[in-house]
Specification:
By secondary structure, the protein is mainly α. The protein folds into three domains: about 170 residues, Rossmann fold; about 150 residues, Arc Repressor Mutant, subunit A (Orthogonal Bundle); about 80 residues, Arc Repressor Mutant, subunit A, CATH 1.10.10. About 45% of the residues lie in helices and about 10% in strands. The strands form five sheets. Strands 1-2-3 form a three-stranded parallel sheet. The chain has a two-stranded antiparallel ribbon with strand order 4-7. α6 runs antiparallel to α9, α14 packs across α15 and α17 runs antiparallel to α21. The longest helix has 20 residues. The radius of gyration is 29 Å and the shape is elongated. Bound molecules: zinc ion (ZN) (2 copies). One zinc ion binds next to loops.
Length: about 525
């Protein structure tokens, strides 16, 4: 059984209306690993939905976390905001509501494009609304038990001054420590390092629980049934272990079914954005990987296995694998080892599997076609020379359009040079020998009235080279030279078949003179 189905069954058996929680701490650049969490949550959601259950996925944004330090990507002026909740820090670009929005908004837009159906919840709003008040009160009243649990779980000495809750100083805006003995619900006194003494109301956004107390409080508030989280939280003595005890012994709730996931590793030459010199972000991954393929990438292996996200040539292999699973899903022919991957393909559609086999354009071919066209209309025009585009329905065109956009993004920032080319309007400035010109002359009459398809053209190019003094290898190189100014390139048969016949004829005539 696929892992998402295992979790789904567990949830459906236990809850009438299962709730799955995922989340993100938007303190800085969002890494590609955050995508794994969101997609893992969505896949479980759609698997539960497939069992006929009324299921909800929530996406919790830790917008009330403090800014821990001034990261390198922040201007120096942001030094003054360190220690403040990120929902109260201005956005660095001036276009967003606050710091948290600035970093998470593009990611939220992208989640939509991935088909992740979740309710977005901002943690700072939960505090403002007093949703945490009951848990804060319990944590404060049972503070000594909290300290004992944390000691027992982590093995670290208990800190008698441990504060489960930190008020925000109304004067300097930073998180500070409470005065324990005078606490009386809902008011907590504090004495801030800045010298200010004040009162925090735990039913308002005047402070927050520490992470080890906040996470189980969210389980209690939402009745979370399952939650994916990074494997660091799952380590022995980690926050899942302490959360399990705190939710039961302090908050009188239960812990969710844990789905710890392994981090995503970046692999291959393309792991840096070439023009920006920065690592691949979650947004880059979304922009250069078609959504259905990105979903599939995270679903084909168990969450506890690591994933290599290869932004280089591996991108093409991943697309090929996805298309192969699609063919097996619709046409059969897979073997036993494909079963899990075919189910991953199905889950990647979020319960919207196409009604019939979609039009498949090999991804490598699309990479070439995109480079031959100025825009998407051009892509369709070129594809029409080699594919039966009249059979394409609206969904096929939509998918092709998305894939073309991803390919273009990939080519602009990440693709290795070996797959890139540019077809100049005239013969590129290259030296051509007599032997090469003779080869072109021999090709002209054959290309003039042959069938215009990849196999025929590939055959003509190969046979003519073999019969000419030039030979096969040099013959191919000569054609690449006059088409793209390089000595290697896309497979010649389909490459030339994708071009207009008159264009190819003119190029051969010009080059042979
Ligand atoms: Zn901004
Ligand atoms: Zn202060």
């Amino acid at each position: 059984m696929h892992w998402a189905d295992v979790v789904a069954k567990e949830l459906a058996d236990k809850y009438d209306q299962p709730l799955i929680a995922t989340g993100i701490s938007p303190t800085g650049i969002i890494h590609v690993g955050s995508l794994r969490e969101a997609i893992t949550g969505e896949s479980v959601r759609s698997a539960v939905e497939g069992l006929g259950k009324d299921v909800r996925l929530i996406y919790l944004i830790d917008s009330f976390d403090p800014l821990r330090k001034r990261y390198d990507f922040l201007p120096e002026s942001f030094e003054q905001y360190v220690g403040m909740p990120i929902s109260r820090i201005p956005c660095p670009c001036g276009k967003h509501m606050n710091y948290a929005h600035h970093f998470v908004q593009p990611f939220l837009d992208a989640l939509e494009s991935l088909g992740v159906k979740c309710d977005i919840i901002w943690t700072h709003e939960l505090y403002d609304q007093g949703r945490f008040a009951e848990c804060i009160d319990m944590a404060m009243r049972k503070r000594k038990e909290v300290i004992r649990i944390l000691h027992e779980v982590t093995g670290k000495a208990g800190d008698p001054n441990y504060a489960p809750y930190n008020p925000v100083c109304e004067k300097c805006g930073r998180f500070t420590s409470p005065v324990f003995d005078t606490y009386e619900y809902p008011i907590m006194e504090y004495r801030c390092n800045c010298g200010h003494c004040g009162h925090a109301d735990v039913t308002k956004g005047d402070g927050k629980l520490t992470w080890r107390l906040e996470w189980p409080a969210k389980w209690k508030i939402f009745g979370t049934g399952a939650e994916p989280f990074g494997k660091d939280h799952a380590a022995a003595g980690g926050s899942y272990d302490s959360g399990k005890r705190i939710v039961r012994e302090i908050y009188d709730g239960v812990e969710p079914y844990p789905i710890p996931y392994e981090f995503v590793q970046l692999k291959g030459v393309g792991q840096m954005h070439k023009s920006l010199g920065s690592p691949v972000t979650g947004l880059d991954a979304i922009n250069m990987t078609p959504p259905e393929i990105l979903n599939y990438l995270f679903l084909r292996v168990n969450p506890e296995r690591h994933i290599d996200y290869d932004s280089g040539l591996g991108m093409l292999d991943m697309a090929d694998e996805y298309d192969r699973m699609e063919r097996i899903y619709f046409e059969g022919g897979g073997n036993g080892t494909d079963e899990n991957s075919v189910r991953a393909y199905e889950l990647a559609q979020h319960n919207h599997v196409p009604g019939g086999m979609p039009l498949q354009v090999p991804y490598r071919h699309l990479v070439n076609v995109v480079q031959m066209a100025d825009d998407f209309e051009g892509v369709i025009e070129i594809l029409s020379r080699t594919e039966e585009m009249s059979k394409a329905n609206e969904e096929d065109i939509g998918r092709l359009r998305r894939r073309s956009e991803c390919v273009r993004y990939w080519l602009n920032g990440f693709a290795p040079d070996s797959v890139k080319f540019y077809i100049a309007d005239t013969v590129p400035c290259v030296e051509l020998s007599m032997v090469e010109k003779v080869y072109f002359q021999a090709l002209i009459p054959k290309v003039m009235d042959c069938n215009w398809d990849a196999d025929t053209i590939g055959g003509i190019v190969a046979d003519t080279a073999k019969e000419s003094p030039i030979g096969s290898k040099k013959g191919y190189q000569a054609l690449y030279k006059i088409l793209i100014g390089k000595t290697s390139g896309p497979r010649l048969g389909s490459f030339i078949a994708s071009m207009d016949r008159n264009f190819v004829m003119n190029r051969l005539i010009q080059a042979s003179q």
